[in-house]
């Protein structure tokens, strides 16, 4: 049995379902937009730190196959024998997956609320790179999500046709990360897609970290400027650092 109550904020009657079940209006307003922005900011920072560490690890490819494969093997045996083989790696993966679900979910809910609040009206006259990046954050996020799926199928799972025909799986005693990476980037389409994805990642990171500084309530002009500068520097470093790898494969510097 349901009843209706008048809600001043909504301007119309809202149906209340059984106890414990969110009504349609409650679903639109809970969690609060402030909470959703906080979730996006915190999970975004987690991803920013991850891609930075991931990029630093990727740059070990310049030290040669032996060192790069040793690094890949170390990741899989981290904290052994306290944890089983790949145990720590799977913990990281689960945490990142949880952050991804929370980040995407919060982004979708905020976008839906913004569209409903805006109605048929649209903001006009927005110009500049920051404005363009802000308006395309959902699109760039979708591109990055597709890239993540492809990247995992290519260099982690080795699923064809995503991975190269010469992909060799990793075992507890051997790693072929270097050869798999080189073989993957020797395919022009994959290398171009990777370069484009890194450009999108750089823009997404720069604007996302700038937004996180605001959403986390950072006050003070100098402190805000510092946060924005650090976010921009991190985004640029990740973008450029990762871009050098397929270019190095193309030029034969890494082979």
Describe the protein.
This protein has 255 residues and is mainly α. The protein has a single domain (32-251), classed as 3 helical TM bundles of succinate and fumarate reductases (Up-down Bundle). 67% of the residues lie in helices and 4% in strands. It is built from nine helices and two strands; from the N terminus they run ββααααααααα. The chain has a two-stranded antiparallel ribbon with strand order 1-2. A hairpin with a 4-residue loop joins β1 and β2. α2 (33-58) crosses α8. The longest helix has 32 residues, at 87-118. It starts with a strand and ends with a helix.
Give descriptors for this structure.
255 residues; 2 strands; 3 helical TM bundles of succinate and fumarate reductases; globular; two-stranded antiparallel ribbon; mainly alpha
How would you briefly describe this protein structure?
The protein is mainly α. The chain has 9 helices and 2 strands. Strands 1-2 form a two-stranded antiparallel ribbon.
Order of helices and strands: EEHHHHHHHHH
- What overall form do the CA principal axes indicate? globular
Largest sheet geometry: 2 strands, antiparallel
CATH topology call:
3 helical TM bundles of succinate and fumarate reductases
Mean pLDDT: 86
Helix content: 55-70%
Report, as a whole number of angstroms, the end-to-end distance.
69 Å
Number of helices: 9
Q: In the CATH hierarchy, what is the architecture at level 2?
A: Up-down Bundle
User: In total, how many domains does the architecture comprise?
Assistant: 1
With strands numbered from the N-terminus, the spatial order across the biggest sheet is: 1-2
Q: At the first level of CATH, what is the class?
A: Mainly Alpha
Structural class designation? mainly alpha
- Number of DSSP strands? 2
Report low-confidence residues grouped into runs of 5 or more: 1-16
